[in-house]
Amino acid sequence: MNTPVPTALIAEDEPLLAAALQTELARAWPELRVLATVGDGLSAVRQALALSPQVLFFDIRMPGLSGLEAAAELADQWPADGAPFPALVFVTAFDEYAVQAFDAQAVDYLLKPVQPSRLQKTVEKLKKAIADRPPAAIETEATLEPVLARLRGLLAAEGGHAAPRLGAMAASLPGALGASIRMVPIDEVAYFEAADKYLRVLTAGAEYLIRTPLKELLAQLDPQVFWQIHRGTVVRASLIDTVTRDEAGKLSLSLRGRPERLAVSRLYAHLFRAM
């Protein structure tokens, strides 16, 4: 009986480092087949969904989506009845806080420049993880939850320490960027939504734009008041009216005072498990 060839995807925005990692992998794990090498987070998600590799090597710092954000997006889109979610290995320059977070969440990582001895240990763990999977195993929402929990922990750690709470923000009307500024009290905000270079600020009856990145804004919001429900969406929890699940198992919610429905990603579905 032929043993299936293990497969991997490398996401690294520096071509020389990607090539060096592939060379070291060829020495440490000759039978491993690298299906593709990509240079940004969005391409990593697309290729992983298309190729279903068994292992992912994701650089933490990449254009577009970071390695963590790409992993979270991939987990959100991974078919619940498909192949098992790939084993994740993050590749990073030394960062004391990142390393502590990886250790706390029991997530494997490699430090740049990748050392052959460390890579060999990682390879042995990956081989065991692949070998321990039952034949013809498929992913389910239940088996994905431990992966999602670890990613939530890493994303929370990446957010850093809480900043002073936001009381109000200077925001522009969409059609008059910079020409007219209004101080929008935080108590009026129903939800925030990332949109290209701006962040949409939605109240019960108006929309404004600010330039603050969502990741930076999250540190200034009370997590008991505002819940992140998607990579680019944060809502006021007290305004949540209905949460529904469609035929594909995807969650969405509505807010009192707002007409639209907002998608809830798999990463944050645990917030509504009791509903």
Number of helices: 7
Strand content: 25-35%
Architecture of the largest domain in CATH? 3-Layer(aba) Sandwich
Domain count, please report it: 2
Describe the structure.
The protein is globular, with a radius of gyration of 21 Å. About 30% of the residues lie in helices and about 30% in strands. Helix 2 packs parallel to helix 3 (about 65-75) and helix 4 runs antiparallel to helix 6 (about 140-160). The longest helix has 18 residues, at about 140-160. The protein is of the alpha/beta class and about 280 residues long. The mean pLDDT is about 90. It contains seven helices and 15 strands. The strands form four sheets. It has a five-stranded parallel β-sheet, with helices on both faces. A five-stranded antiparallel β-sheet has the order 10-9-8-12-11, with no helix packed on it. The protein has helices spanning about 15-30, 40-50, 65-75, 95-105, 115-130, 140-160, 215-220, and strands at about 5-10, 35-40, 55-60, 85-90, 110, 170, 180-185, 190-195, 200-205, 205-210, 225-230, 235, 240-245, 250-255, 260-265. It folds into two domains: about 5-160, 3-Layer(aba) Sandwich (Rossmann fold); about 170-270, Beta Barrel (OB fold (Dihydrolipoamide Acetyltransferase, E2P)), CATH 2.40.50.1020. About 30% of the residues are buried.
Please outline what is shown here.
Helix content is 31%, strand content 28%. By secondary structure, it is an alpha/beta fold.
